[in-house]
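Model: You mentioned two targets. I'll fold them one after the other.
Researcher: Yes, keep them separate.
Model: Target one:
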Amino acid sequence: MSGANARTMVRCLSSKPRRTGILVCQPFFLVIALLLLDQSSIAQTSPGEVDAYEVSASWLLFAPSGNVQTNSNRVQFASDLGIDGTQSQVGFWFLIQPWHRSGLFAEFIPYRFDGEQTTASSFRFGGLTYPSNQSVTSKATLNYVSAGYLREIVNRAHIQGRLLAGVAYFGLRSSASSPSVGSAEVNRDIPFPLVGFLARYTRSEDSQWSLRGDIRGMTFGSYGRYIDVSGAFAFNVSQHISIEAGYRTVDGVGHTETRGADLNFRGPTITFRMHD
């Protein structure tokens, strides 16, 4: 590790407020350290197959909830903007392993939500005030992208465990429109570090059924958090193709004194996965 990187890590862990700095940085650097230590043993591993891939496409039937904060106003997705109920989404996951037991991953989910509501009370959004008894049409676009390094730490006959560490980005674009008031927009861009653990259990090597569980996230101390948890039953159609049915919940909170967002998505998922 270079002297500049070491000084950066020390400043992050000792910055004020100290509790917030520790909560934000320690989980990320702990996983990074474990991945780097484990990576150093690759040269000592016996030769074998080192090229692998994994590609999946998911259908997500998510029910959104949450709010967007502008100055001192909190605008609720459901009661103010009419964004509620289950809405279909798609997600994509990519993994390539050019090294033994380790590789690079990327995930992309272009969330799209819309709603329509006759307001029960007035609210202020994007600099405009929408009075009660007004028809409001709203849209929310949320692009989620994550990428980073993945390391397989457990690889046994029945159990597989993998650690990941990387960066993630949320790009939120929300808008509201009313014939009498006009249109307004609120945009948020939130990059953050990400760590996680992915597990897979198979009863036997020739079993067509398996269980998958993923958890990833990061805490930002007093500024918020992000946690993404999913689980699924997988049916192996062939040696390289599986279909999975599961459930996923995403909880993201990020805010300062005058700006922020609280996003919650949850619902069933169906995934088509191809792997080597």
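Model: Target two:
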Amino acid sequence: MAAQWGSMKTVKKPVNKKYIIIAAVVLVLVAVLVAAFLVGSQPRSGSVSDELTDAVLHEEKKVNLFGWEVNPAVISAFIVTAILLIFAVCVRVFALPRFKEVPGKFQLVIEKLVDFFDNMARTNSPHSNGFLGCYIFSAGCYICIGTLFELLGIQVMATNGYPVTLPAPLSDINAAIAMGFMSYLVILVGGIVKSGARGLGLALKEFSLPISMSFRLFGALLSGLLVTELVYYTISLSIVLPVVVGVLFTLLHALIQTYVLVVLTATYFGEVTEPRAHSTAKKKRGKRALKAA
């Protein structure tokens, strides 16, 4: 009995590894912030207004593409498009034939991703969702991967002789406008094909939709750059804090902007493609609910 009691006293509960990792991360962040305070900020070569102006207009830092001077975001757009197309071809040729009834980790991720966009299309547009699911899947992947692309920090040489980091494709206002108008074009064509003149009228009624979509994308990505530059230029923690802020804003924008654009596209597509009978019945139910209230 004494031996058993002694063995029971020596048994200790295992320490949860999660708490150890969290504590280690917190200690590293505190140490880095203290070091940044002690070192202080370094003098900047340019003003924050110049950096922000060039980030929006790209007047100085242009890149040579086959003899044409283009914005760095154009190079980013080509690279992101190539990455997505190559990945899609590889999945179709090598991974898809090996999919099983009991999915593995990679197959489970792909199926969850496809189901997410497919369910969103069916929920918001139950009467016509075949092409809609494909479009919001493609647009969502492009926005998310394109936004995360700037975390790679790939640098190229600009025409003025200075290196420039390739930004997110949609940080160029032209790319954001193209994405907004493309989504609106899908809504407009879907309304014409499914509902004829009525769908055309409903789509044209939302004439400000492409502008709001475009500037929502562009403004969200630009706000991350704005906050990072302001932190970098005005706070003494400019050694570490801009990196943390930039990564957090990039991750948040990649998820939030992807979700917002695909939800808006699916919702308006469902409205313009809804059959007239269902629309009338919905209005009658709404009037009855108002009377009952």
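Researcher: Noted. Anything on target two?
Model: Residues 44-292 form one domain.
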